[in-house]
Amino acid sequence: MASLFSSVLLALSLLSSPFLPNANAHTKLGFSADLIHRESPKSPFYNPTETTAQRLRNAVHRSVNRVVHFNGKDASVVNSPQTEITSATGEYLMNVSLGTPPFPIMAIADTGSDLLWTQCKPCDDCYAQDDPLFDPKASSTYKDVSCTSRQCTALESQATCSSEDNTCSYTLSYGDKSYTKGNVAADTLTLGSTDNRPVQLKNIVIGCGHNNAGTFSKKGSGIVGLGGGSVSLISQLGDSIDGKFSYCLVPLSSENDKTSKINFGTNAVVSGNGSVSTPLITKSQATFYYLTLESVSVGSKNIKYPSVSDPFGSSGKGNIIIDSGTTLTMVPNSFYSELEDAVASSIDAERVNDPKNMLSLCYSATAKLTVPVITMHFDGADVKLDSSNVFVQISEDLVCFAFKGNDELAIYGNLSQMNFLVGYDTVSKTVSFKPADCAKM
Questions:
Q1: Catalytic: 323?
Q2: pTM score, two decimals?
Q3: 110 is an active site residue
């Protein structure tokens, strides 16, 4: 990873966080970075003994666990930048560096989280991590933030203060009981760019975790929050990227070693022939990106999406979360049953049971399936899915429908987003989709 940042850093792309008074809000950025698939040979998660189907099966399993991650998230109740993201069966990683001199870390890029955090020395009680821990004392630009700072108050109920030294601390707890605790700080963040000109972002608010435990993998070293909350990387970059980011996800089954891309600012505009846009809905849980799904068509049959309540808001508008970290698309059980029936009745092949009972509509991988055209009808945007968005091979002899019933939370997952340029505009409040060959971008 260190080689990614071995070139001389260019001063062309410096930025200060909008949280700090010296923010340079007039600097406009555009850059792109690699999103490295978790199962890619470039990823620390890569297991060369596994087949592609086994990796996809693992991704499906993580997708189910992801719903738990979402529920109960809060423990207390100009150079255009593009950065490198790695996807492991439903998760993507970004190579970033913290501090001065830059210290490389491999972190999960998460549209379902806000705070950027990593494990730090001294580690009072931490999970095992293969890579070295970040040492804040070794960074000349690191500084803890005070209790009275805007950075601290932005964390709201996730922040606490020490009366002894006036430093701000944070606690983040996830639905699966994993947690991270430590100091709220500001430091320089360096993103590796696809044009080999690393982008330095000054005074980025981070969490320096000194007490972390749970289901975090030893092969990762933190999270880069790309959600909609006030301390996410997207919100901190603010005007400098005009609130825009996009990504193009290479299919998980791709045999070529192509990486996905994440784009920021002027590089992130999604427009032109074939692009469609739908409103981005804001709810009380600001982290998540909500869309409104009106119906789904299977061939000529249109199935109306139900008006159901979710844990973070009202029914109707904003009834499904779009998330890059969930593999499957999750919909309410009653709607899923109707959707599955429509898909199954359109396929002239014998159904096969999934021996692990993870997915319910499966067929033999050797069967010649004629998959019906499935179209997602979002508010103002019809997104026509390819067969590779709809069915996934989870074993050498089994392909399954990549949707699943779930009454806890509706999520538009990353399999449905593969080979689309997906653009988020947090200023205009839209999400755009454009069909693309992501391996060529």
A1: yes
A2: 0.86
A3: yes
